[in-house]
Prior knowledge:
Helix content: 25-40%
Largest sheet: 9 strands, mixed
Distance between the termini: 36 Å
CATH superfamily of the largest domain: Alanine racemase
Strand content: 25-35%
Radius of gyration: 22 Å
CATH architecture of the largest domain: Alpha-Beta Barrel
Order of helices and strands: EHEHEHEHEHEHEHEEHEEHEEEEHEE
CATH topology of the largest domain: TIM Barrel
Number of helices: 10
Shape: elongated
Number of strands: 17
Structural class: alpha/beta
Bound molecules: pyridoxal-5'-phosphate
Amino acid sequence: xxxxxxxxxxxxxxxxxxxxxxxxxxxxxxxxxxxxxxxxxxxxxxxxxxxxxxxxxxxxxxxxxxxxxxxxxxxxxxxxxxxxxxxxxxxxxxxxxxxxxxxxxxxxxxxxxxxxxxxxxxxxxxxxxxxxxxxxxxxxxxxxxxxxxxxxxxxxxxxxxxxxxxxxxxxxxxxxxxxxxxxxxxxxxxxxxxxxxxxxxxxxxxxxxxxxxxxxxxxxxxxxxxxxxxxxxxxxxxxxxxxxxxxxxxxxxxxxxxxxxxxxxxxxxxxxxxxxxxxxxxxxxxxxxxxxxxxxxxxxxxxxxxxxxxxxxxxxxxxxxxxxxxxxxxxxxxxxxxxxxxxxxxxxxxxx
Length: 352
Ligand SMILES: Cc1ncc(COP(=O)(O)O)c(C=O)c1O
């Protein structure tokens, strides 16, 4: 076991005590609410971490990309997988069918007839049955049918297509209008005598209000595993619950109030969403990560009483941990200053 001090920078580390606690907390929360926990592995893309989530009690995993399903199936992480992306075209549907044969349950989502028909044709060719959830836009403004009636209609249409099996409805993320949307949709299905086995919600910020959605049978959180600056800003986590840090070296102090570190957009990513700056410096909480170029990170130290020197190491909690995972080959698991694990980010870059 090497000391974390031996790590060259920049490097992405994960505090194992914090990460394990994050896994335990979400599992305990979903258990206490009687909701199945189906973590989204796009946050880490590391099969060993998916196995930890499964050992803690997850019912299966969520993937966003076929490449992630392939890597995680190969590693034997879970035999119950939900792929939350519209899968279109011959190449992808053929890959999906190959995976369907390997896994006990590989469910998909869709929000339109084109995808449903493509999946049905591929499933018929392959002689497999594909379980599906209808994706609903319950307030986020991304994919998803726009009304409960449209969810019901699409489900009924797809149920009549060969080799598809209706498994339920899903959304991302649970927002305030989700409850009314899902309740109305469930009423429509009930009225038609159609069972809805799965009602799937998602999102780490949504764990704050999970108890307000009693109709959910499962929840998909991803970011909760590491947490990041976005989660702190949305009050879903504290800084002490952020496990991922980018370890960086101060390489220049051009002025009294400016430091430059060796981590730029190619490690920290340029993601900001609703967060100001590009991360949180744990040793200098008053510092602002005010700018990034590809290989340089600029720290504004004007509000800091103590200031780092050239050669000092700092640890930065990134804004968006899921994208940082896709930036590096290896993530280091650290406990008490020692490196306990060097995980290959096996599904890194697998975007198809
Ligand atoms: C469809 C879907 N489900 C679940 C999640 C997990 O959300 P979070 O990362 O906020 O936990 C995401 C995140 O992008 C998602 O797109």
